[in-house]
């Protein structure tokens, strides 16, 4: 596993995938009975959604797996294929998260059409899903992997020495020993 193999957009993709997975465990909504949002129970994404939470989880885990494959594989073919197919899932996750940010689902324990407040998890989840889509699109745009830096021995082999010329134009024989 070579950490230098991943580009900035790959690290961003993995971090946003991890943030998306972590946001599923945070509180997304709070029901507001009678307009008082401080007293209602907070609801996580696992409790508020039926299928969308699974889509968000798979998209986040796929991004983390793509980062892991980028670090482990010598060629970009496998991580690029996973990221390319995962982009469609990230698109679905971004659309679902943004729609659920705008239109709050019916919360368990709240009445039909009850008002709900959006909490930190909803904002982080929607932002991470949208950012994940952008990071995946940026990651599949460039197929190259960064070249690892050369060792000192490899750099020394690339250095070409030129012969020195004396003032009269004759080639200098090199360093002389003092006698």
Which short descriptors sum up this protein?
single chain; 179 residues; three-stranded antiparallel sheet
Mind sketching the topology for me?
Elements: H1 8-23, E1 27-31, E2 42-44, H2 45-48, H3 52-72, H4 77-102, E3 116-118, H5 120-141, H6 152-158
Antiparallel strand pairs: 1-2, 1-3
Main sheet specs: 3 strands, antiparallel
* Low-confidence segments: none
Count of discrete structural domains: 1
Strands ordered across the widest β-sheet: 2-1-3
Please provide the count of β strands. Answer: 3
Seen as an oligomer or otherwise, the chain set is single chain
Task: Determine the fraction of residues in helical runs and give it as a percent range.
Answer: 40-55%
Q: Approximately how much beta-strand content do the residues carry?
A: 5-15%
DSSP helical segment count: 6
Radius of gyration: 28 Å
Taking the alpha carbons of the first and last residues, their distance comes to: 56 Å
Q: Give the overall average pLDDT.
A: 79
Q: What structural class is derived from the secondary structure elements?
A: mainly alpha
Q: Which outline best applies?
A: rod-shaped
| String of helices and strands | HEEHHHEHH
Q: Overview of this structure, please?
A:
The protein is mainly α and 179 residues long. The chain is 54% helix and 6% strand. It has one domain (3-158). The chain has helices at 8-23, 45-48, 52-72, 77-102, 120-141, 152-158, and strands at residues 27-31, 42-44, 116-118. Strands 2-1-3 form a 3-stranded antiparallel sheet. The chain is rod-shaped.
